[in-house]
Amino acid sequence: MKTGAKILVESLQREGVDILFGYPGGVVLPIYDELYNSTLKHLLMRHEQAAAHAADGYARASGKVGVCLATSGPGACNLVTGIATAYMDSVPVVAITGQVPTSLLGNDAFQESDITGITMPVTKHNYLLKDCRDVARVVKEAFFIAGTGRPGPVLIDIPKDVSTGIVEKVEYPETVNLRGYNPTYKGHKRQIDKAIEMIAAAERPVIYAGGGVISSNASAELLGLANVLTIPVTTTLMGIGCIPGDHPLNLGMLGMHGTEYANFAITESDLLLAIGVRFDDRVTGKAEKFAPNAKIIHIDIDPAEIGKNKRVDVPIVGDTKSVIKDMLASIKKTGAKDSWIKRIKHWKQHHPLKYKKDGRLRPQFIIQQMSELLKGDAIIVSEVGQNQMWTAQWYNFKNPRTWITSGGLGTMGYGFPAAIGAHFARPDLPVFDVAGDGSIQMNIQEMGTVAANNIPVKIAILNNMYLGMVRQWQELFYDRRYSFTELPPVEFVKIANAYGIEGIKVESCDDVLPALRAALDCNGPFVMDFRIEREENVFPMVPAGAAINEMIGGHEPT
Amino acid sequence: MKPHTLAVFVENKAGVLSRVTGLFSRRGFNIESLAVGTCEEPGTSRITIVVIGDDEKVEQVMKQLNKLIDVIKVTDLTENERVERELALIKVNAEPGAGRAEIMQIAQIFRAQIVDVGAKSLILQVTGDTGKIDALEKLLRQFGVKELVRTGRIGILRGSKTIASTK
Fold it and tell me: What is the pLDDT along chain A (558 residues), one digit of tens a residue?
């Protein structure tokens, strides 16, 4: 004889959950009471949105399913931004919400919201439980759906009478049976053969790799493929880390803030091997002019992504790891296409990423220093905006799952709570959140969480007293009319201190490395307030709607 | 741009219809007609959706529908030989006299049934493809249509082929 709440907690333990990020409230009290008895770790956040982001950061860093918990109504609604963030980036998260008792459902009861209705467009699937006998089965299904196929968030809404309801005999299912859900993992043999033939015939091939490579843990296979074929690799924002930053075949990121050489290579390529990507508009620019001369092979586990934005010559539906493995098994080592590799080397040499080195404190320098100090052995989380793009451009990532950022939804305020989640996934690694002064203020209350639990997340604020990326757009496209993008100066160190956190304000280049070292040496959380050059921009930049080889701050390919 | 008739075979669970229709609205597809009911297999339902769009858009909507966990199978009936029907109930003004006789005559030609006779009105029930119902409606307009209700289109493949046997 067990209550629904007890079954829930036991089911979570059976799924291998080791931590929940949550916030209590009226109708989840039965669940919280059960947690009080259990060995499951629960981290009390300061805002439900942060709980969802923390679960997401945990999932991205660990490869496991992240779990968050909130009460009904406002609590559940506050999860929505975090759930939508996870949905856009295909992150496996299970969100559990309390709901008013079934007898009050639809009555506009106190703290009632139709959270399954609200989250329908931003979840892979969701459940409203009406019977405590369904709890174990639904938890099993939710974890299965979240973590398999194209991963994504699943929400379980549990009315109070379901969590207090008594089940006489509990059966925990071992397997799930969902007729309508059968992801294809194995790629079609004939399509793979066709792809191999096309690659062998190509003169100027490029691999375009994305988040799908990381979520299927296929980085080693991807690297193997690139090496065997000597094909240069460009990654999306989400794909950063799937090939070491300093690998000779790595072209860095492509797209709106991509490197010139990546965008040139895409534009001149005659074959594009797209792996675990979705041809997002921030990547392709004007879609018709994206890889205009290339035959396209697209590998993705989600058939709906294939042909969605760009016509594809060879579609391969399957798990990227499995498909690349199959390709490697029958592919022959081909020699470098000398002229192509030479051309790319030339571009890398003549069109590197650059910034002005005049002794003033510039963000690119800070990220470079961070990169040299940490040597890739850290998890770097970012907020959204210029801070995110500078980090993507200038930090030398060595491993998958060490770069955590909100790519699809572009959620300001994501980084700090995601960094908290990442710490619990990889307590062995230092975790840095690169923030802007705008973004950090969107979830700054989580300083309370890190202070109370001594969570050693290091926050590097690139403080330019602007909403930097919006200001950059205003400078370039709105005649420098800085409409509501200037932020008054904030003494972040004082805020940190108020929470009981150490911090340091940095105003010169010479103080950057000592500050980063101090952060690293500190056992707990640490705040760095870098007062950077105020009107520094992220370049190169492809204006929205332009072709990706038409870059502001770029050059004609030589 | 042409109408496509999609047969969507789903688990009969709460909220499935709203998942399906919500997907259409948020991706900017316009549903032309929609009909839902149980089908040959207990615990499942069949939704018939008519959507207008070019082939690529319809392919995308089918793929998105297939991603829904409660959707078991999606088939585009459009390229196949099929039977399509909808049903309409039409309440038409019918004062006793010549008008009433004329309406009854029209009903006969269209094989519509008169299912209710009032002092000043008749209710006609008609089944058929969309064109037939449109034609009848047009003819009855001259008498004054007080109320009209249509079920939305349903479709089924001809011969022994079923949506389960299509690929």
Answer: 999 999 999 999 999 999 999 999 999 999 999 999 999 999 999 999 999 999 999 999 999 999 999 999 999 999 999 999 999 999 999 999 999 999 999 999 999 999 999 999 999 999 999 999 999 999 999 999 999 999 999 999 999 999 999 999 999 999 999 999 999 999 999 999 999 999 999 999 999 999 999 999 999 999 999 999 999 999 999 999 999 999 999 999 999 999 999 999 999 999 999 999 999 999 999 999 999 999 999 999 999 999 999 999 999 999 999 999 999 999 887 766 789 999 999 999 999 999 999 999 999 999 999 999 999 999 999 999 999 999 999 999 999 999 999 999 999 999 999 999 999 999 999 999 999 999 999 999 999 999 999 999 999 999 999 999 999 999 999 999 999 999 999 999 999 999 999 999 999 999 999 999 999 999 999 999 999 999 999 999 999 889 999 999 888 777
- Distance from C-alpha of B158 to C-alpha of B165, rounded to nearest angstrom: 12
Of A116, A303, A304, the CB nearest to B15: A116
**DSSP strand pairing (A19-22 vs A66-70):** parallel
Among residues B128, B112, B124, which one has the least CA distance to residue B149?
B124
Nearest to B63 among A116, A145, A304 (CB): A304
| Cα of B11 vs its chain's centroid, Å | 20
Residues of B in contact with A121 (CB under 8 A): 22, 26
Rounded Cα distance between A49 and A37, Å, is 26
Q: Do B72 and A307 touch (CB under 8 A)?
A: no
Among A86, A33, A10, A25, which residue's Cα sits nearest to residue A55?
A86
Supply φ then ψ for residue B90, to 5 degrees.
-125, 120
Q: How far is CA A447 from the centre of its chain?
A: 21
Non-local (6+) Cβ contacts of A208 within 8 A are A234, A235, A236, A254, A266, A272, A273, A274, A275, A277
Query: A-contacting residues of B 64-93, CB under 8 Å?
Result: 64, 66-73
Residue A276 half-sphere exposure toward CB, CA atoms < 13 A? 34
- β-strand partners of A314: A297
Distance, CA of A360 to CA of A124 (rounded, Å): 47
**pLDDT per position as a tens digit, A171-186:** 999 999 999 999 999 9
Which of A121, A179, A303 is facing B72, going by the closest CB pair? A179
The residues of A that are catalytic are 48, 110-111, 160, 469
Look at B56 and A307 and tell me if their CB atoms are within 8 Å. Answer: yes
Number of neighbouring beta carbons within 10 Å of residue A553:
14
* Residues of chain A contacting B73 with CB distance shorter than 8 Å: 180
Task: Inspect the interface and report whether the beta carbons of B22 and A308 lie closer than 8 Å.
Answer: no
Instruction: Give A-chain residues touching B56 at CB under 8 angstroms.
Output: 307
Alpha-carbon distance B29 to nearest alpha carbon in chain A (angstroms)? 15
Measured between CA atoms, how close is B158 to chain A, in angstroms?
Answer: 25
Q: Which of B26, B56, B69 sits opposite A125 (nearest CB)?
A: B69
Tokens, residue A23: 């916030």
A120 vs B22: CB contact, 8 Å cut-off? yes
B72 and A180 in contact by Cβ < 8 A?
yes
Tell me which chain B residues have a C-beta less than 8 angstroms from the C-beta of A128.
Answer: 14-15
How wide is the angle at C-alpha A393 spanned by C-alphas A388 and A397, nearest 5°? Answer: 95
Helix (H) or strand (E) holding A137: helix A135-147
**Inter-residue contact A145 to B68 (CB < 8 Å):** no
The residue of B60, B63, B75 whose CB has the most chain A CBs within 10 angstroms, and thus the best one to mutate to test that interface, is B63
